[in-house]
Amino acid sequence: MVSLLNIPFRIVVFGLFGFAVCRLQLWLSYLDYFSGFFPSLLWMSLLKGIQFDSAILFSILGLFLLLLSIPIQRLQSSWLRPTLVWLSGIVLFILYAYSLIDSSYFGEVKRHIGAEILNITSDLGAIAGIAATSRLDATIQGVLILAVLFLIWYGFVIRPMRSQVLYPVRNFFVGVLGCLFTIAIIVLGIRGFVFSGRPINVADAFANQATPQQANLSLNPAYLSFRESMNHLKQRPLHLVNEEALQSFAQHNPQIFAWQKKQAIPSNKNIVFILLESWTSRYIDGLSGTSYKVTPFFDQLMQKSQVWENYYAAGQRSIIGIQAALTATPALPSQPTIGFGLEIKHMSRIAQIADQHHYRTLMMQTSKRRSFQMENIASALGFKEYYGQEDIPLLREYPQEQPRFGWDYEGLQFLAEKLIQKDSGEDAKATTQQVSEVVSSPAEASAAASLTAKEGKKPFFAFIFTGTTHEPFPKLPKEFELYPHNDRTESGYLNSLRYSDWALEQFFKRIENEPWYKDTIFILSADHTLNTKVDNKDVAEKEGALISNKDFRIPLLIYAPDGSLPPMRHQVIASQYDLLPSMMDLLGFNNQVSAFGHSLFDASSQSYAYLYQGDMLGFVNSKQWAFFNEQGIQSQSDALDEVSKQELEGLKLKLQYADKLLRDNQWAP
């Protein structure tokens, strides 16, 4: 019987060993993040990690291990035994590969993939491209680790299996006891060797006041993705406050997310909304007081614009920024994102609203049409026109082929051409009768129709998402190579930022003499901050390795060439959730929208912002910040004062109420 259990035992030992190797690779790859670990804390994290490794290992291989332990001579002498062993190995190596991929992702946002595996699977082509270019060194390292592990697997498991001679189990009861022992070990393993109470859970990684670094080192990436994905698919309700507090809050604030300017008069302004990939405040000299000298045009434009200096991204992924900016619907761990299921919910959709006001609506990105599910998102939000990289012609020479995320210059010039052209074959004029359907009075309708008929063109709402500043950073013409080129570090990003800034300048030069230029409002915002290693060691050490509000601070400017928005520097806290109601305000639309933010031009704006970081939620006001989950605060600037505590509790109530409304499909009318 002992010889029968030898191979299952070896599979388990090797499985745990392989996970330990992947965990050590993560630790060695990000020593700056895991700095400050005492040896005892490191060993505690590694030991805790064995529990999570066991949970995923026995959950997936439990049946294989049980079949390999059944004391039936005919079964163990057949082809089934080697097949089960090889299948176990294949599964383990898939899990190891996933852990190594997760390690590369970890460097971007200081957390594991988790439930975001449900979102990124649609962009496997982009991921493969990055793995073969800017992350080639990490890819090679991962392949080498897997190769070494395979040699160990072959010597530790396969050779002993082939040379093993199995003798019949002479005592039936011994065989039964052996099977029962195997079942007991499998059950305990699935529970993470927690003998009583609930099985091991993600929250156990934070037990005994463990820091986020300790928790991230303990967690098994495959286990975390499995558990979070299951919760995500089940849409388990968010639980930040008790039910009684939530009911009281909902009763007293039933319309807290409703925003409307009932007396608004249509301005008939156009809007061009440019979402800039990975633009980060600290690299913009006009915002941070630095001297990178890569955004001269943006710095100049700031002097003529309204600028929000304390403006934050909703999250650390582009899709979150797009969702926040165009729908003002909060990103929650209990809900899917736009493009992956959220769009079936009732929500406010800016293009749909603009279309009701007889605007031409256009959306485009420099990436492929289907990248980030953007083609479907455009349709779901009500955009009538949509373009992607396949539609954009190349206009100048570059020292490399087109990058996966496209060229900003070509994309912006394509947008300019589309705006200059006729209205895509649609009727350019709106009658008084049409406009009166969405305004308050016949007088307003007449005024709006008169303005619309001017120049014989419909007003437009245009959105473009740029991409050249996305890693891997492309090789650019020499005039943009201000820093040594590197396709994955800060210096490469700075060169791409210089190019992107120049592309913006050329876009404005192209359209500044168009008759509609002065009737247009330009909104320039980033989607999220740069998620790559900082070259300057002093800056990196000063900012620290933990997640903080600085990982979300991005630029926002709103420019009106006609002077209707005089230059101003705003110090109030703002976020991407404020953009939808702000655009409604600027356009003079009197529709009611549901938004997790307020108009930036509304004096009653809230004094804090909500941030989303996958497995953690964030809060930031003018003085303090904190990141938390259902187990409590996990990271903070310092001890929160009473005002911050009250605001944080208010945010928790709003988040849980928003989650309830979304689950009941009552977020918007």
Automatic annotation (TrEMBL):
Tell me the residue numbers annotated for binding substrate: H470
Q: What Gene3D superfamilies does its record include? A: 3.30.1120.80, Alkaline Phosphatase, subunit A (3.40.720.10)
Membrane-spanning parts = 7-30, 50-72, 84-101, 138-157, 169-190
Nuclease in keyword set: no
Q: Where is the active site?
A: S318
A Gene Ontology molecular function term for this protein is: metal ion binding
Tell where it localizes: Cell membrane
Signal peptide segment: none
Cell membrane as a keyword?
yes
Q: How does it sit in the membrane?
A: Multi-pass membrane protein
- Pfam families from the UniProt entry: Sulfatase (PF00884)
Q: What are the protein's UniProt keywords?
A: Cell membrane, Manganese, Membrane, Metal-binding, Transmembrane, Transmembrane helix
Q: What is this protein called?
A: LTA synthase family protein
